[in-house]
Amino acid sequence: MSARSDISVVGQPLFLAWIAALGIGLVMVTSASMPLAAEIYQNPFQFATRHLVYLGLAGIAFAVVASVPLRIFARLDRIALVLAIVGLVLVLVVGDDPVKGSHRWIRLGAFSVQPSELTKVAFVLYIAAHLTRRGDAVRERFGALMRPVLVTSLIGVLLLLEPDFGTMVVLALVSFSLLFLAGARLAHLALLALLGGASVALVLTLEPYRLARMAVFLNPWAEPFGGGYQLTQALIAFGRGEWFGLGLGQSIQKLFFLPEAHTDFIFAVMAEELGLVGVMGVALLLSYITLQAAHVGRSSIRLGQLFRGYVAYGAGLLLGVQFLVNLGVNVGLLPTKGLTLPLMSYGGNSLIVCSVLVGFIARAHLENCREGADGRATS
């Protein structure tokens, strides 16, 4: 007897983890943004209200993606890639006025679209489809690696022109990891790593402000009121929180000491209000989502569903790498980059895209179960 009727996305632990992450994010965005919202809009819940709207859109996006068979997305990979590249070009031509020196948004009525976020989805679909079509060649010939490498490089150049160095690094790491998972030869990957490392070093040396940011990263306390201000304030938040935090809503650093408290540095506010125990719980939750993606990807490939597997791996890698980068920035292990905490930071584009990525993983798991990947849906 078929068990298909007993399987749904809503019943997955991954779905519950996604809901939990969104719920924690809503609470912390509300707490972290209230002082700034009251100052700018005379309404302490202004950002929280917007975040609720974004949550609704993220929920719709998740539901749509989790309802559509992944084979449909496999047919759209090239179209999605072209649209993503067009979007990255348009943001340089008709994008909003630069914010903190970066052109990243295109205004569409009441909303702003961030093409670099949408590119993450298109990138995963394209790389997954290419590895499915050309997997044998990728495993045997270095030349076969060049097509995804050239696509990654083109997107990277466009991102650097915004500039968005952080997203470029994340996509490069995801591309390299998927090539490794697809079975590319280690010698070929080592050569790509050398070329990639040299390219990153060149990019750093070409822009003086990046070298200055690296110097500040190595010793932020040398400029506590200059280039190291943001990081030192984040570290103070971690120190204040100690083991169990000051209590929800009791952060001092969010009172105009810590810039981007409700976006890039929301993890620091969590540390101050919830303590080490609280942020460890958040880290475990996001790690669980990433590990679930790896489990789903492995099960899909064992079933011979390569596209499904690579999409799950890619989505999990994007979420996991972005989380690690945000964590590293907040605790001073990495230079400051404008990357949000997945599923939790304020920001509609990031929230929707991250929910789409979780939707891919949930859909892949659902299809695996229907094919009996774990022995739960056999006929």
Main beta sheet strand tally, sense and closure: 2 strands, antiparallel
Helical content stands at over 70%
Sum up the overall morphology in one term: globular
Unreliably modeled segments: 1-5, 373-379
DSSP strand content: under 5%
| Strand order within the widest beta sheet | 1-2
Count of runs of 4 or more consecutive helical residues: 13
Provide the structure class: mainly alpha
- How far apart the termini lie comes to 5 Å
Q: Average the pLDDT over all residues and give the rounded result.
A: 89
Query: Got a strand count?
Result: 2
Order of helices and strands: HHHHEEHHHHHHHHH
Gyration radius, rounded:
21 Å
Note down, in words, how this protein is organized.
The chain is mainly α and 379 residues long. It has a domain at 76-340. 71% of the residues lie in helices and 2% in strands. It contains 13 helices and two strands, in the order ααααββααααααααα. It has helices at 13-41, 46-67, 70-74, 77-94, 115-140, 142-161, 165-181, 186-206, 208-218, 229-241, 266-302, 306-331, 348-370; strands spanning 106-108, 111-113. Strands 1-2 form a two-stranded antiparallel sheet. Helix 1 (13-41) packs antiparallel against helix 2 (46-67) and helix 10 (229-241) packs across helix 11 (266-302). The longest helix is centred in the C-terminal third of the chain and has 37 residues, at 266-302. The radius of gyration is 21 Å and the shape is globular. The chain starts with 12 loop residues before the first helix and ends in a 9-residue tail after the last helix. Residues 1-5 and 373-379 have low confidence and may be disordered.
